[in-house]
Amino acid sequence: MWLCIAGSDAQAQRIGPIQSPILTIDSERLFSESAFGQRVVSEFEERGAELAAENRRIEEELSLEEKDLTEKRATMPAPEFRELADAFDEKVQVTRRTQDAKTRDLNVALEGRRVVFLNAAAPILEQLMREAGAAVILERRSIFLSSNAIDVTRTAIDRLDTVLGDGSDAPEQ
Q1: From the DSSP assignment, how many helices (H) and strands (E) are in the chain?
Q2: 42 in a domain, yes or no?
Q3: Residue 76 belongs to what domain range?
């Protein structure tokens, strides 16, 4: 429900869900329930699933290679086997580091998209603050007790969806 506070011209300009010097927001919900956040999460879940499938494929290949190496052990001189085993161990370590780096890169990219989202959300949140006459928006999870009346998360999500849509045209971070 939107309220218009009558009085001075400045007050008449303040239209918002509430009038309070302090507002709260659940930033996790802001991201996860917005069209932008839902698109990003979906995109990164897909990329994560592709990486997981790649990891399973690599694991299967390495498992087969290890089995083959184990079978060769009985028919090879120890020094030759040790050379093959060491090369295999190095391959496993390099593969693990490479796949771990891909996972880290994916997480960094997701955090980058969150930063893009929050930067795009800032003007909208500032407008909500002005409309409510607020001086601050606090993270809801950091507050021990508050009235739900000062939580503007839903209003912010609605406005973000209107202004940003799914954010598919937002610049990459």
Answers
A1: 5, 4
A2: yes
A3: 3-164
Inside any domain, residue 173: no
Distance separating alpha carbons of residues 149 and 146, to the nearest angstrom: 8
What domain count does the chain have? 1
H/E stretch holding 76 reads none
Two tokens, residue 3:
């309220």
Distance from C-alpha of 40 to C-alpha of 167, rounded to nearest angstrom: 8
Residue 15 included in any domain = yes
Residue 24 CB burial class (10 angstroms; 0-12, 13-18, ≥19): buried
6 and 12 Cβ atoms separated by less than 8 Å: yes
| pTM as predicted | 0.75
Taking only the tens of pLDDT, the chain with its 173 residues reads 333 333 333 333 343 557 899 999 999 999 999 999 999 999 999 999 999 999 999 999 999 999 999 999 989 999 999 999 999 999 999 999 999 999 999 999 999 999 999 999 999 999 999 999 999 999 999 988 888 889 999 999 999 999 999 988 766 65
